[in-house]
Amino acid sequence: CASSGSMVYIKRILLKGFKTYENQTRFDAFHPRYNVIVGRNGTGKSNFFDGIRFVLCDEKYSSLRSTDKSALIFRGSSDTVMSAYVEIHFDNSDARLPIDKEEVVLRRTIGVKKDEYYLDNKHATKADVMNMLEAAGFSKSNPYYIVQQGRIDALTLMRDSERLELLKEVAGTRVYESRRDESLKILKETSGKIEKIDEVLKYIDERLKELEEEQKELKEYEQLDKTRRSLEFCIYSKEYREACEQIEQLEEDRKNQSDQATTAHRQLVAAQDAFKDNEKRAKTLSHELAALAAEKETLEEERQELIKTRANVELEVKDREQKITREREKSAAIAKELSHVESQIEDATKRLAEAAPRFMKKAHQEETLRQGLTAKERRVAELYSKQGRVTQFKTARERDDWLKGELKGVDESLRQKKDQHKQLAAEVKQLRADLVREQEDISTQTEQMSERRGIIDRMKQEIRESKSRRDELHNQKKELQRKQYEKDTAITNIGREMQKAERILESTVSKVISQGLTSVKRVIQENRITGVLGPVIENFDVPDEFMTAVEVTAGNSLFHVIVESDDVATRILEELNQKEGRVTFVPLNRLMTREEPFPDTSDAKPLINQLHMENRLRPVFNQVLGRTLICRTLEVASEFSKSHNCNCVTIEGDQVNRRGVLTGGFYDVRRSRLRAMKDIRTLKASLSATTEEAKKIKQTVTDLEQQVNQILGEIQKKETELQQMIDTYERLLTDLGSRTQEHQAHSVLLEQKELVLAQLQGAIKQSEDTKKSITAELGTELVSQLTPGEQSELRAVTEEVSTLKTNLLLVATERAQLESDKNTLQSMLNSNLYKRLEELRHQQGALVITEGTSALQSLTQELEHARKAVKDVTLRKAEIEKAIEEMKAQVQTTREKSDSLREAEKHRHLALTEEAKKMEKLLSTRALLNQKKEESTRKIRDLGSLPGDTMDKYKDETVKQLMRRLHDTNNQLKGFSHVNKKAIDQYIAFTKQQEKLQERRKELDDSSKSIDTLVVQLEQKKDEAIERTFKGVAMFFKQVFEQLVPGGNAELVMLRRADPSAAPEPDEASQQSDSQSQSQSQPQSQSQPPPKGRMSEYTGISIRVMFPGSCGKTMQLLSGGQKSVVALSLIFAIQRTDPAPFYLFDEIDSNLDTTYREAVARMIREQSKTAQFILTTFRPEIVERAKKWYGIQFANGASAIVPIDKDDALATIKKEPDLKREKDEQATPATPATPATPAPSTPAPDEAKKDDDEDEEEKTGKEEGKKDGEGAEKMGDSYEESESEG
User: Fold this and answer.
1) Cα 602-605-611 angle, rounded to 5 deg
2) CA angle, corner 455, sides to 454 and 459, nearest 5?
3) How far apart are CA 1035 and CA 1062, in angstroms?
């Protein structure tokens, strides 16, 4: 063990359906050190511990019967639980368990008929679980890591001899005893074998003496037998020579007959091939004829459709031409009128351009005259006003005041006029800039319209090109569809031919094999099974000349199914129905063949070398054809069959097996399986190629359809864009007219504003003159008469006024005339000519941007295509009609040729049948002669070796004379019928057997000595293990007892037979005497008693303890509580000697006093630093020092364990009415009033402080944990040492 932070411990336990635990599937993790479980009696505490023992393969639950399993399964009111399991989760952070996981889950599941183990949800065997637990430190020899109820009492009542047996169990002596028993058993068997060998040797000696006497008569018998064999040899040799001569003659006849049969066979094959080729050509012509007829019908339908299309297109072209003619006439009229309007506009514009300056000049002149006239008239009025002011005003002052008021009004009017002038000047400037900008916009828009016209024309051209490309692709698609139809027809025809070839192949095998192969294919397809390579016949190729030889050699093996492994075959067989035929599988993984080193000459070659197959399939064909040679002639086949002990076959199919048996004769090649398979392969290849071509054509058609659809999409898109461009062009045209009218309106408005601006300038000048006049009058004298100068001025101004009025009238008349002319021209332009110009341009634009000529061109192209298509289809139809007529003639010729070939094949077949019958007769005779020859050879071989002069001695005698001699010799041999003819052989055999048995006896003697030595060594090791274990347990027992009973002392004493201190306990005396007498009487029954070690001297282990205040006592003299303390000390000592990762204690403190319970709790608390403890108790001392507490509840007939705190645990203990505990406390003897009194129940201050600081030490005491780990490691090393010695 290591410290609690790095050792294996139980994290959680899950129980379902086990005993009283119906469904305990959730569980709070155990503390890695000190855990206490409390609960009332009968709630299931012991069942909880039983669950742990159940999983850990405790001896009680190692082997369960059905009744035992049923007793472990939960039985509630519904009785629905059919199985149970217990699952333990181990913390494996230190990797002590041999599994590379930090948490290991071990589960054991039982049912009425099952008992299974699982490791991390994977099925495991019991041996796997036991090995894992042994590796983690759970020793089989130490059952005290789980201490259930009653174990303490059992220890207190245990006898000395029983304690010795317990020590042996802890020391692991079972291994030594088991090996010792096995060795003794082997030794006993060896002794029995030696006895049997001695008996056989005795019999052999007697038999050898008898055989020496029988050898004399045997020699006389052998001389006569030699003569008999010589005569028989001569007879058989003569018969052999006669058979060979007859065979040679038959072979010559057979060779001649074979040549004739071969010639007839070749003629028949040639006739059959010719007939087959002719029939194939006839079928091909028929299929082509049908295809041409179908194509002709399709072309006729296509021609009719094209004619309809051509007629429709012609009508559309005619309508389009008429429409274009009308549009052209209309366009000419519009162009003519447009030219006239444009000339009128030009003339009117020119006249307006000339009239406008004159008008403006006259208008300015009129305005100038009017301003001058106004100024003169105002001056006259001022002079008259000045003259009349004397009557208006009394004084000059009043006049000046009035003049100032007038001056103020003039200034205000002058200011307003200047503001108006400034604003109007800005508007005139803005109008002039707007006119320039509008003129630029009109020019720009005109250029845009020109560009749009070009784009529209270009888009129309692109649409025409796309439509042309569409028509080309459509024609290509139609041509490809025609080819696809041809390929589909060819595929259908090839499929029919392949079905026919498959039917021919099926007819060559039995019905059950055919059904079996069909069923296998169905199963493979339905279940998608891989690893099936198909029948043998489908996995190789062979030249035509060797087909017959391969076929007659392989036979039905050609239809064996090759699979990758026997698992694949098993899976197929599981799916097959027994009534679905018969099939044989050849699994590649099971084939163990080797190729024979046969010769490869010009006369004979291995048949397997003529085949072509994959290298990995060579073992299959080696099994079928590996021991067969293909030979040039039957004679060569016979020679090689004898010389190489193999099967031979000729190219014609005649076979000679290794025994010399001949088979063969006529073979009907029309029912050849390999030829049918070759035809199927050829048709499959053709079908695959044609299918691939059809697939490519179909893909090309699909691509063309996609291209056509793409082009149609592009055409639609371009037409949409074209319409949008036309709409934009029309909007630009309308906008241009609006901009032109707006520009003209702005020009008129500019002229008007310029006139108003000139008038404002004149008014400003008049106001300024008025202001000057008023200013000049201010401050002058108020007089009634004008000054002479003023009077002279008045007269001059009056005359000027008269002149100005006359001139103004003339200029105004001219200006009005010019204005009338200008307005007339502007009205004509704006109201008539410009509007008409816009209308004509719209009409002309509409005519230009319509489909018009482009549509006519497209229709013309379509018409040309339609006419060309009609012409092509008509020509193609004519060609097909011509081809049909020619093909009909070829079909008729082919059928006539087939009839003649069929008749010739019939005659040749009859001739070949006659030759085959003759050949079969010759072969039958030859087989009989060969059999006779082989029989003679066998008889000669059976005669054995003979003298070299045997033939010379009887060469002149006939077979009849030899037979007479043989008869006389046999009569003489009858007198020696009682002679043992195997006496010599038996003598030699018995001698060899005698030598072997003597060697065997020596080996058994040596083995017996080795076993004796091994038994002695095992006894020594067992003694050492017990003594070592006893020393460790005794040492720890003394230490533990002193810790539990301060001031006390205890020791273990090994009792020996010769030890006077080994006085047996009163209740053991009789038993020991019985055992001693039995052990003394037992060796007398054996001749050689087995060796014994020092263990035979030990009779038991005694315990001597001394409690404070008393002298040393044995177990029988102690009270119940003291016995429990001693038993616990022994248990703790055993645990320290053989430590485990965790310990389970079930109410071990039930018989302890309070003082000892405190001591036990402290010891458990101390040892929990190196191991996990899980305890059940009814005592508060154990509960107080725990790290984690659990309570077991029982409700509705089921138990459940839940985590609780310390207070709940103490409360649960107090509620349980444990009468036994009260009686034990009352029966506790009073402490003797001696100075050496036991320690009080309250722990010493240092111990209490130590207990309080344990939690802190658990977190920070790394050094403490390290020391504990080193101590535990030493214990583990001691344990491993004892295990290795065991």
Assistant:
1) 125
2) 120
3) 20
Going by C-alpha positions, the residue among 1163, 1095, 1015 that lies closest to residue 167 is 1095
In this structure, what token pair is assigned to residue 1040?
A: 């533990």
Beta strand spans in 1133-1187 (E): 1142-1146, 1172-1176
Cβ-Cβ contacts under 8 Å for 2 (sequence gap 6 or more):
94, 1170, 1265, 1268, 1269, 1272, 1273
* Alpha carbons 774 and 382: distance in angstroms, whole number: 9
314 backbone φψ class: left, alpha, beta (φ>0; ψ -120 to 50): alpha
Secondary structure percentages of the chain, helix, strand, coil, to 5: 70, 10, 20
Distances (CA, A) of 110 to 55, 56, 929: 11, 14, 75
**Any residues with CB less than 8 A from the CB of 174 and at least 6 apart, and which?**
141, 168
Q: State the distance between the two ends of the chain, measured CA to CA, in whole angstroms.
A: 21
Please state, in angstroms and rounded to a whole number, the distance separating the CA atoms of residues 1105 and 1050: 4
Query: What tokens does 1157 get?
Result: 């319970």
Q: Is the alpha carbon torsion for 183, 189, 195, 200 positive or negative?
A: negative
Q: What is the CA radius of gyration of the chain?
A: 67
- Cα distance between residue 414 and residue 420, in whole Å: 10
- In angstroms, the CA 280 to CA 411 distance is 127
3-class DSSP state of 1198 = strand
Question: In angstroms, rounded to a whole number, what is the distance separating the alpha carbons of residues 520 and 22?
Answer: 51
Q: Is 435 left (phi over 0), alpha (psi -120 to 50) or beta?
A: alpha
The residues with which 612 forms a beta bridge, in sequence order, are 541
Task: State the Cα–Cα distance between residues 22 and 1040, nearest whole angstrom.
Answer: 40
Angle ∠(968,970,971) on CA atoms, nearest 5: 65
* Overall average pLDDT of the 270-298 stretch: 77
pTM for the structure as a whole: 0.39
The residues near 533 (Cβ < 8 Å, ≥ 6 apart) are 539, 561, 562, 563, 564, 617
> Strand order of the sheet with strand 1172-1176?
146-147, 1142-1146, 1172-1176, 34-38, 1188-1195, 1198-1204
Tens-place pLDDT, residues 1035-1090: 888 888 888 888 888 888 888 875 444 444 444 433 343 433 333 333 333 344 45
> What pLDDT score was predicted for residue 1277?
40
Which tokens in the block code for residue 1083?
Answer: 């060796």
Q: Hunting for tokens 């965790």 — which residue is that?
A: 1142
**C-beta atoms surrounding 506 within 10 Å:** 17
Look at residue 601 in the predicted model and tell me its pLDDT. 84
- Give CA–CA dist 1020/1253, Å, rounded: 48
The span from the CA of 39 to the CA of 325, in Å, is: 117
Q: In what order do the strands lie in the sheet with 532-535?
A: 532-535, 561-563, 585-587
Q: Which two tokens stand for residue 1098?
A: 């030990």
**Among 388, 1238, 418, 427, which residue's Cα sits nearest to residue 786?**
388
**Residue with the larger pLDDT of the pair 185 and 1242:** 185
Q: DSSP secondary-structure letter at 1235?
A: S
In 198-348, DSSP assigns E strands to: none
Q: What is the pLDDT of residues 526-569, one digit of tens each?
A: 888 888 989 998 889 898 888 888 888 888 888 899 998 988 88
Cβ burial of 856 (10 Å; 0-12, 13-18, 19+) is middle
Q: Tokens 């081809």 sit at which residue?
A: 883
What one-character DSSP code corresponds to residue 62?
Answer: S
**Structure letter (DSSP) for residue 545:** G
Asked if 584 contacts 598 with a C-beta cutoff of 8 angstroms, the reply is no
